[in-house]
Amino acid sequence: MNKEEPSFDEVEETSDEAVDEKAEESTVSLSQYEKIKDDYLRLAADFDNYKKRAEKEKENIGTASIAYFVNAIFPLIDNFEMAMAQEKVAKEVEALNSILTSVLQSLQVEEVGKIGENFDPSLHEAVEHSGEGDSQIIDAVLRKGYLFQGSLIRPAMVKVKSE
User: Fold this and answer.
1) How many CB atoms lie within 10 A of CB 148?
2) How far from 1 is each of 6, 8, 118, CA to CA, in Å?
């Protein structure tokens, strides 16, 4: 053994030292562990909040799309209202009006503004006011208003009578 080869005992000692050094390096103090744990919990909470926010945004986009669609067909709805107010209405027009009404109901669109209701400035737009008194009642509906899932998408245009 002219060449210096480490003996078995020397190799064993150096490997034990390497293991001890690695063990010392891999141990984490309690404060570091608490910090890492806290960071992990914060990250998990942030991710959970992100998922909730993304889900809510999806719902809002769907709601806004339906409201935008209903806003686009208001002229059609108004024209059907005028056609239905005529003395003679063709059966086809009645059928189309009933289909339009059922579509609006399926989209959860509600009409606002009926004669005899109390005037509510958050739902109705008064274009004429008559009479003197404390209670304000809707006397005539010039244009129907609509709510979509409890939110006003168009106020009713009404004439108000005070009693």
Assistant:
1) 20
2) 10, 14, 111
